[in-house]
Write a structure and sequence with these properties.
This protein is mainly α and about 140 residues long. About 60% of the residues lie in helices and about 0% in strands. The protein has a single domain, classed as Recoverin, domain 1 (Orthogonal Bundle), CATH 1.10.238. The longest helix is centred in the C-terminal third of the chain and has 19 residues. The two termini are about 20 Å apart. It binds (10E,12Z)-tetradeca-10,12-dien-1-ol.
Length: about 140
């Protein structure tokens, strides 16, 4: 499942190039998207939230309220090898985090909190991809 997560992350991360400028996410804040999973990377910058919104929008993963589009996210994850073992769980995990921060009005601020919550929950569940896994998968996309 960490393996599937690494495919999703690497593919999703490709969209960062197109979203750097409009999100204001500098290389200093985040060099490459897969660094998201590094143990020492802190998911804190509001700009990272803006970038995730921009990237998710390009992949049609958000609804009009800037919340996850459940069906599209499920289909997106299923489009990767063995994606069906992760899709439902991932939608649930993200939704659990969304509910925790639903009162934050600023979309970028809310989404970076959701992303940090999602990362922590993945680590706790043992399904966070390891850096070595990500490096290997990066060669495939
Ligand atoms: C998609 C693969 C890896 C990624 C990391 C960031 C995931 C953050 C989830 C937030 C989704 C947006 C929720 C909006 O309410």
């Amino acid at each position: 499942t960490a393996e599937v997560m690494s495919h999703v992350s690497v593919h999703f991360g490709k969209a960062l190039q197109e979203c750097r400028e409009e999100s204001g996410l500098t290389e200093e804040m985040m060099e490459e998207f897969h660094h998201f999973w590094r143990e020492d990377f802190e998911v804190v910058h509001r700009e990272l939230g803006c970038a995730i919104i921009c990237m998710s929008t390009k992949l049609s993963l958000l609804d009009d309220n800037t919340r996850m589009h459940h069906d599209n996210m499920d289909e997106y994850v299923k489009s990767f090898p063995a994606g069906e073992v992760l899709s439902k769980r991932m939608v649930e995990m993200i939704h659990t985090c969304e509910k925790k921060y639903d009162d934050i009005a600023d979309d970028c601020e809310r989404v970076v909190k959701i992303a940090a919550c999602f990362k922590a929950d993945c680590q706790a569940a043992g399904i966070a991809p390891e850096m070595a896994m990500l490096e290997v998968v990066m060669e495939k996309y």
